[in-house]
Amino acid sequence: MAELHFFTGTMDSGKSTLALQTNHNHAARGRQGRIFVTRDRAGQGRISSRLGLTHEALEVDADFDFWRHVVDSLTQGTRIDYVICDEAQFYTRDQVDQLAKIVDELQIDVFAFGILTDFRTQLFPGSGRLVELADRMNVLQVEALCWCGKRATHNARTENGVMVTEGEVVVVGDVEDGEAPEPTSDADADVAYEVLCRQHHRRRLTAARAKAVSLAPEPLPFG
């Protein structure tokens, strides 16, 4: 029986790498699949991992209809045994419903990969719907780490080096290294992302801020 799988984790936990590996494993057994992605850092129509792996993919926008695309492809004689969906947190609730329908009505396996919550610690609509509908939900075992060494559980956004908790939900950037923000053309500010443990996300204590605090000169004693 076909199933809807949802693989989730923070940024930098290997979701895109696993998506590419899943595609490789199924293709190696002679299965035919389709790969979909939206807003990948490598650009439109590409899925990429931070390990340097890339693959062509079909770009998904807000008006894309998974059900119609797959049905039309099958009608034209194209074989589809499975579907890979990366960056699924950006899909609409209706699009996730379409993926579930593909599984139930066409018996095609769907493997979706995405982040659960945004930089405000709120569920993405697409991820929330996947939690509601998925036959199997898998939390990735490759744990991303906060700068303090604890398991990272939250995604933080910085603008011009300062952590923010308000703003547009979708602004494309990359996970930063704690030294400098990554520039993006999607906003006036330099936008970057960093994974943090809950404690440091709550305190808005990023790696750069923690380093700055540790290097600050101690106050001179009086007297």
Which helices and strands, and how do they pair?
Blueprint: E1 4-8, H1 15-28, E2 33-37, E3 46-48, E4 54-56, E5 58-59, H2 66-75, E6 82-85, H3 93-106, E7 109-114, H4 125-133, E8 136-139, E9 154-159, E10 162-164, E11 191-196, H5 198-202, H6 207-215
Parallel strand pairs: 1-7, 1-8, 2-5, 2-6, 6-7
Antiparallel strand pairs: 3-4, 9-10, 9-11
Helix pairs in contact: 3-4
Model description:
This protein is of the alpha/beta class. Helices cover 27% and strands 21% of the residues. The protein contains six helices and eleven strands. A six-stranded parallel β-sheet has the order 5-2-6-7-1-8, sandwiched between helices. A three-stranded antiparallel β-sheet has the order 10-9-11. The protein has a two-stranded antiparallel sheet with strand order 3-4. Helix 3 links the parallel strand 6 (82-85) and strand 7. Helix 3 packs parallel to helix 4 (125-133). The chain starts with a strand and ends in an 8-residue tail after the last helix. The model is unreliable at 177-187 (pLDDT under 50).
